[in-house]
Amino acid sequence: MTAVVFQPAAAAAATAANLPERLAAIVGGANVLTAGPDTARYEADWRGVFPGHCFAVVRPRATDEVSRVVAACAAAGVAVVPQGGNTGLVGGSTPDDSRTEVVLSLERMRAVRRIDALDNAMTLEAGCTVLAAQEAAAEAGRLFPLSLASEGSATIGGVLSTNAGGEQVLRYGNARDLALGLEVVLADGRVLDLLGALRKDNTGYDLKQLFIGAEGTLGIVTAATVKLFQRPRHVVTAWAAVRDPHAAVQLLAQLTEAVGERVTAFELMGEGALGLVLRHAAPGMRPPLGGTHAWSVLFDVSEVCAHLDPTPALEETLAEAMARGLVLDAALATSQRQAQDFWSLRDYLPEAQRREGPSIKHDISVAVSRIPAFVAEADAALQALMPGVRIVCFGHVGDGNLHYNQSMPAGMGKAEFLAREGEVHAIVHDTAARLQGSISAEHGIGRLKQDAFVRYKHPVALEAMARIKRALDPAGTFNPGRLLPRALLERSAR
Ligand code: ZN
Questions:
Q1: Separation of 442 CA from ligand 1 center, angstroms?
Q2: What is the pTM of this model?
Q3: 29: CA distance to ligand 1 center in Å?
């Protein structure tokens, strides 16, 4: 008798070969894309840094379909790359170029399932954009405060999976702080229902937090219950030239003393950053203040009570800060339109950098009080490494988060500049680490920052993460090679 030899590789290949058919049976043929022109927009990140090629794109319409798609992919041993609005900056949501990964797009799951103004809570499907979430909350007379430049495309599932930050973290927290509940599809296809509007629940591990910031490596977020807030009746926007980063931190402290948590955003821009905006800006974009200043801050003070206008307190604080020499000049927006004009300068920064040409980018955080030390130490070390390097520094002072980027010195070639990228990263990340900071404050790790992640994260933390990954995704099919490097998982499995 001839023994039947089971060949796992051949069996897997056979199953993968008919996977598109089985996926089509779940989501309909029109929602399984395999032809190049159809899949292209799912295969590269918007910056074009991580071009890839997938096996197929599948677009389920409901949680039950996600569950069955995941089970089918697991049975075929095929990796799944979950994708929301594809606005990430670290290559976490696009396929590699192996043509073996299935992109699972949540873009058809955009229903608002429930809004309860009394609970200040809203349950949405993962593919709902952040902008649509803001609009749905506004219709119910509430505020969904997550706000970031990509909000028209970024999705609820994406911002939770990456724990996105943005411009109002200072007052409302980042995506993690806004989540009350989650619905997640696990690696074996089962649905973990953690939805609900509870503010208090001390029944064991807070499992939802595991999936927030996990970049799709532990489960696929299919829906979420998020916090809502009262809508502000007054928003006062101000622009101020400050003496230096230390003065910016002092001004924030003084403002907070005067108006408490009404400070909803507090952004810092160095002259290198503002200069780029003005150079590349659309006609009509003008700085609110005359002259050039080394450092500027832009901030919002919001008040929910119609009878309490924070403007007098704000003016008084600015006058005091000017008397102390912290603030050199300041302007309050006198209309909503003018406030938008102030913010458009800030929001144009990433685009201005793109137009300027190659840049080396960082997304670091330190304790707020250490921002001045970080800027001083990193600036000095970079000028020593590369004299004339142009520092493009801006960020969210209230969160201790700086986008501390570099553009080429005048006269240097692109190749010569980019060849020094590793040295520049090392200086910036070493400086952040020395000040007990983080090498990724709000952009995540993805594929872009794995080297720094492994270098700076505590080894025991890395080991704990690898164990959690193996417990929840033992076959390693969810977003493999993102966040946790393959080598780390292999090493910790031995
Ligand atoms: Zn940011």
A1: 7
A2: 0.93
A3: 39
